[in-house]
Design a protein that fits this description.
Helices cover about 75% and strands about 0% of the residues. It has about 300 residues and is an all-alpha fold. Helix 1 (about 1-30) runs antiparallel to helix 12 (about 270-300), helix 5 (about 85-120) packs antiparallel against helix 6 (about 125-140) and helix 11 runs antiparallel to helix 12 (about 270-300). It is a multi-pass membrane protein. This is ABC transporter permease. Pfam families: BPD_transp_1 (PF00528), BPD_transp_1_N (PF19300).
Length: about 300
Amino acid sequence: MIIYIARRLAQSVFLVFGAITIVFLVLRVIPGDPASLILGSQATAEELEAKRQELGLGDPLLAQYFRHLGEVLRLDFGESWRLGGDAFANVLERLPATLTLAGYALALTLLIGFPLGVHAARNTGKAVDRLVSYLSLTGQALPSFWVGIMLVLIFSRMLDILPATADGTPLALVLPAFTLALPFLGWLARLVRNGTLEELGKDYVRTARSKGLSERVVFNVHVLRNTLTPVVTVLGLVLGNFIADAVIIEQVFAWPGIGSLMIESIVNRDYAVAEAAILLIAIFYIGLNLAVDVLYFYLDPRITLETV
């Protein structure tokens, strides 16, 4: 296992290196000048050039890139001209809000999607099975930002029962967490349904029934346990998607997390904060994939780490 983890970590280094390179180039290719945003429209050409030199933007792009690589290795992204202070510290300050939102969304996905999938599998071909399929497809098809806006209009503006933005109360999590979870509820429900039906048709289920085990024991102890293996894999990817998709949801609900911070930093050309936020999201996603692969091995001993 140690060899496998070491090999995956080595691969992760190349992935992080690629992410750093792409983010660096994209942020500097898009139109906009941080110096003009800092000094304003009244600044002279000399003042703008002096500010660019101060920010390190007057050097050739290749020199900026290698200097940036050295800074990233030390987790030193520089100072945020917009927020003040260390850029990475500003990102870490917003991290708990994003993790809280992603955690609530994951809990909703599990508590709703898993039982729906099991119920549909136990009633395959019936009305409830078709209803779960229709609802799951609808949830995946609707754009998240539109769902968020509609939920705000209905539950915050019309009914006035839930807050539309972050106000420090647990209720403020309901709308953004549900909006974030909705596309994945149907995905998980269909995965659980199909996985459960596949397991029910296998030989070990017929053997368990022939031994006189009750249907309840066969289903809950044997079938559901084997269904968990692909579900865990999906949930690891879903959690990574939650952190990435929070960029849009946090904007809709004014949630003070990494996503909204990243968008604000890109708009204001605060390169240091934007790069730190994007790199942290990439590292989280890569780490979650590695954790899921290792957990996959423990859930199904028939699988070796070399084949994952």
